[in-house]
Amino acid sequence: MSAANPHQIGGCEGQTLVMADHAPSRPLAVVALGGNALLRRGEPATAANQQSAARTAAAALAPIAQGTRLVVTHGNGPQVGLLALKEDAYDDGAPYPLDVLDAESEGQIGYVVELELDNAIDHQDTVTVVTRVLVDPADPAFGVPTKFIGPVYDAQVAHTLAEARGWTVKPDGDGWRRVVASPDPKQIIQLDAIRRLVDGGFLVVCVGGGGIPVIAVEGGHTGIEAVVDKDLASALLAVGLDADVLVLATDIDAVCRFVEATGRRAAIGQLEAIGELVAGTAGTQIDGGSPAVELDPVAQLHACVR
Fold it and tell me: Domain 4-137+184-305 sits in which CATH superfamily?
C-alpha cells in the first residue's frame, strides 16, 4: 500500500486527512447504491432479487472502473427492517439492537455487492469494510424518528404492528413503514483504513447502510440504537477521502452538503449514465455558484463532481 505523507490537508469533525506521497492519476468516485439499486420497490426481499439487482449495478459500474477509482456504499433499509422483524419474532431473550443489525446487514449486502463487482471487474480486487460511524447521543433525531426501514404495509397493518411492538410508523408513498432514529454522521471511524485500501489499488465497499452508529464513551466507542442515513454518511466519506466524484441516490440534502464543503459541481442522473454525469453531459448539472442546467428531466441519482 502507498506510504502516506504526515502533512495534514484539513478535514471533517475529529478527523485528520492525509494525502498519499504520489496521488494516483485516476480520479476517485464514491458511489452510493440506493434502495432501487439493491432491491426494487415492491419486490420481495429475497436473496435472489438482491443479487440480481447488485449484478445490474456492478455491470453499470464496471466500465467506469477502468478509468476511475471506486469506493461503493449502499443502503440497507429493507434488509435491516427484515432482520428486525425476525428478531421480534424470536421469543427467547431480548432482540439484538439496531446497531448489531446494521452490522449484519452491512456484511450481508457488502458480500453480495463485493461478489458481483469482482465478477464484473477483472483488473482489481474488491474488499468490504464493516464501517463504524460516530454520532452524537444528544442528536435531536433520537427524539424524532424519521428513517424508514423494513417492508411497506397498508395503514391498518402498520398501526396494528406499531401498537403491538412499540414502533413509530409514517406514510411512505402509497403505504406505511416503520421509522427509527437517524442521527447525523460526524466521523467515519475507519477513514484512514479505507484510504489506505484505496491507495493500495482496491475497490472498496464500505459505509454500508450509512455505517454502524457508535457513540464515544470512556475507553472508546459503543453502539447505539439507530440507522444512519447512507447518503449523508457517503457525503462525509467523500469529503474525507477528497473524492473527485460523489454519486448519490435520492437525497438532495447530502448533495448540498458535499457541494458546500468542496465547492464542486453536482449532477442529477441515472446510474447507467454515470460516465456522462462525470463528464457533465447528462443529468441536471449544478454548479456551486450557478443555476442548475437541466439536461435530463428523468434523473434519479445525485452525483457531485469536481
Answer: Acetylglutamate kinase-like (3.40.1160.10)
292 phi, psi to nearest 5 deg: -65, 145
The whole-angstrom separation of Cα 190 and Cα 207 is 9
154's grid cell: 397498508
Can you tell me the distance from the alpha carbon of 268 to that of 300, in angstroms, rounded to the nearest whole number? 7
Write the pLDDT tens digit of every residue in 42-80.
677 788 888 888 898 898 889 889 888 999 998 877 777
Non-local (6+) Cβ contacts of 218 within 8 A are: none
Q: Where are the domains of the chain?
A: 4-137+184-305, 145-180
Query: Are 284 and 268 contacting, i.e. CB atoms less than 8 angstroms apart?
Result: yes
pLDDT in tens, 141-164: 999 998 887 778 899 999 998 898
Calpha distance 113→146 (Å, rounded): 27
